[in-house]
From TrEMBL:
<protein>
    <submittedName>
        <fullName>DNA-binding transcriptional ArsR family regulator</fullName>
    </submittedName>
</protein>
<keyword id="KW-0804">Transcription</keyword>
<feature type="domain" description="HTH arsR-type">
    <location>
        <begin position="37"/>
        <end position="131"/>
    </location>
</feature>
<dbReference type="InterPro" id="IPR036388">
    <property type="entry name" value="WH-like_DNA-bd_sf"/>
</dbReference>
<dbReference type="InterPro" id="IPR011991">
    <property type="entry name" value="ArsR-like_HTH"/>
</dbReference>
<dbReference type="Pfam" id="PF01022">
    <property type="entry name" value="HTH_5"/>
</dbReference>
<dbReference type="InterPro" id="IPR036390">
    <property type="entry name" value="WH_DNA-bd_sf"/>
</dbReference>
<dbReference type="InterPro" id="IPR051011">
    <property type="entry name" value="Metal_resp_trans_reg"/>
</dbReference>
<keyword id="KW-0805">Transcription regulation</keyword>
<dbReference type="GO" id="GO:0003677">
    <property type="term" value="F:DNA binding"/>
</dbReference>
<dbReference type="InterPro" id="IPR001845">
    <property type="entry name" value="HTH_ArsR_DNA-bd_dom"/>
</dbReference>
<keyword id="KW-0238">DNA-binding</keyword>
Amino acid sequence: MTGTARARQATPRRAGSDCAVRVVDADRVEEVRARMPAESDVNDLAVIFGLLSDPGRVRILIALLDGEMCVCDLAATTGLSESGVSHALRLLRGPRVVQVRRAGRMAYYSLADSHVRMLLDLGLTHVGHAGQDRLQAVSNG
């Protein structure tokens, strides 16, 4: 094998499994493991993606792309109740997805940082491309 070739191991699989041979690229597995983030970072990321799994919270975040807003305005924009918006914002503040600025009795919420903006922008771009791909498949169908 050359220096760039990866060692592969073949081991038999039990009868009835999908593949007759299991191939493991030990060098590649080690490379990926070495780049794997810490377990706490993986868990924190999973929490953020879990928060993004709710359409109401996503609408709130999209509304905040245009700048800070109070709970009343977010409720009017998203169609959610004020208590629903307040609850969602409380969840989003924990992992630093949104931040709050107080002015007297008013609280104004905004995206916590540019990373959240990038995450939303990339997600919306991805969804847009997926929608365009579906439309092209139907028209080419």
